[in-house]
Amino acid sequence: MLPHQLNPIIEPQFEAVNDYIVNHLHSGVPLVEKIGHYIVESGGKRIRPLLVLLAANAAGYKGDNHVPLAAVIEFIHTATLLHDDVVDNSELRRGNDTANAKWGNAPSVLVGDFLYSRSFQVMVEIRNMEIMEVISNATNIIAEGEVLQLLNARNPDTSEDSYMQVILGKTAMLFEAATESGALLAGADKAQQEALRLYGRHIGIAFQIIDDVMDYLSSAEEMGKNVGDDLAEGKATLPLIHAMREGTEEQRQLIRQAIRKGGLDDLQPVMDIVHATGSIDYSRETACAEADKAIKALDALPDSSFKDTMIQLADLAVKRSS
Questions:
Q1: Phi, psi (degrees; rounded to nearest 5) at 14
Q2: What percentage of residues in the chain have a pLDDT greater than 70?
Q3: What does the protein in this record do (predicted)?
Q4: Distance CA 264, CA 273 (A)
Q5: N or C: which end of the chain has fewer CB within 10 A?
Q6: Among positive and negative, which fits the CA dihedral 306, 309, 313, 314?
Q7: Is-contact 241 266, C-beta < 8 A?
C-alpha cells in the first residue's frame, strides 16, 4: 500500500495535489516543461506533500490552500533532486535515468531553478507570511546542508554528530517545513505547531537514515538507484561511521581507504564489514528512535484518523524496503 492510501479521506486531496503539480509546470520554453514533467512523474511516493495534507487536516484545517502548499513542497523537493543528481553525477533515480543523464547538467540545474521560483510564485498566491518565512528559511538550510555534505565527501573522519547535522539540513528540514507549514495554514496553536514541526523533523531524520542503510542492503531494482552510490561518492553515512567505530583496526582502515578514494572497488568487503559490526542494526535502531520521537510529539494533537495515519507513516518510514 502506498503511503497516501493509508487514509481514504486523504486520497482525493492527494490526487488534487498531483493535478495541481501537473497544471503548474507550464512554461513558454518546451524543454522546461519536458524535464519538469519527467522528474515529477518519475514514480516518487510524494511523502513530503502528503505530510502537508496530514498536518493541516490533523490541526483541523477546512480550506483548500493545503493543496497548493503541498505542491510547493514537492516543487522544492524536485528542484533539490535535480541539483543533487548533478552534484553527485548520478545516472539513476527511482529506477529511471536521471534528468542530467538524459539532457545534461546545464538544463537540469536551470529547470531546478525554475521549480524553485515556481514554488515561490505559488506561495505568494497563498498569502501567508509565516508560511513563507518557514519555507524560505528551510530552503536556505537545505542549501547549507548540501554544501556541508560536499565538504564531508571523502572524509573518513566525519563524526556521527556531523552526519546528523547534514541529514537534518539536506533532508529533515523539508519534512519539518511541510508539517509546520501545514500547522500554520490551519491556524494551530503554538503547542500543536511545535508538535507538528518536531514530528516532521524526526520522521525526516529517520527516513534519511533508512535510505542510507539501504545503500548497503538492497539491489538496484529494489532501491531505484545504483547500489553503493554513497560509497562511490565517498559519503561517510551512519552505517560506515558505526562500522569504523566498532570494527578492528584492519576493518577501519579498509573503510577509511574506500571513503577516501570513492568508487566501488571495495564495495563487497565494506558491505561485509558493515554487517559484521552490527552497523545495520545500529542504524535501524537509531532511525526507530527518531520515529518514536516523531510519534511522541503527536501527543499534543487531538485524536483523529489523520493523527493515526501520521503514526502509521512514521512506522512505515523505518520499515520500508525502497
A1: -65, -45
A2: 95
A3: Supplies octaprenyl diphosphate, the precursor for the side chain of the isoprenoid quinones ubiquinone and menaquinone.
A4: 15
A5: N
A6: positive
A7: no
78 vs 59: CA distance, rounded Å: 26
- Rounded Cα distance between 298 and 284, Å, is 22
For the chain, what's the residue count? 322
Residue 59's SS3 state is coil
Helix (H) or strand (E) holding 87: helix 66-88
Distance CA 244, CA 210 (A): 19
Q: Which of 164, 161, 162 is nearest to 152 (CA)?
A: 162
Helix (H) or strand (E) holding 96: strand 96-97
Predicted pLDDT at 291: 98
Q: How is residue 160 written as a grid cell? A: 556521527
Neighbour-count burial for 88-123, b at 16+ CB within 10 Å, e otherwise: bebebbeebebbbbebebebbbebbebbbebbeebb
Tell me the per-residue pLDDT of 136-172, one tens digit each, with 9 for 90 and over: 999 999 999 999 998 899 999 999 999 999 999 999 9
Residue carrying the nine cell digits 581507504:
257
Residue with cell 558493515: 274
Q: Is 101 left (phi over 0), alpha (psi -120 to 50) or beta?
A: alpha
C-alpha cell at 248: 578492528
The residue type at 31: L
Residue 97 is inside which H or E element, if any?
A: strand 96-97
Q: Which CATH superfamily is domain 3-319 in?
A: Farnesyl Diphosphate Synthase (1.10.600.10)
* pLDDT tens track for 271-322: 999 999 999 999 999 999 999 999 999 999 999 999 999 999 999 999 886 6
Neighbours of 139 (CB within 10 A): 18
Residue that the C-alpha cell 534528468 belongs to: 99
CB 92 within 8 A of CB 227: no
| Predicted pLDDT of residue 226 | 57
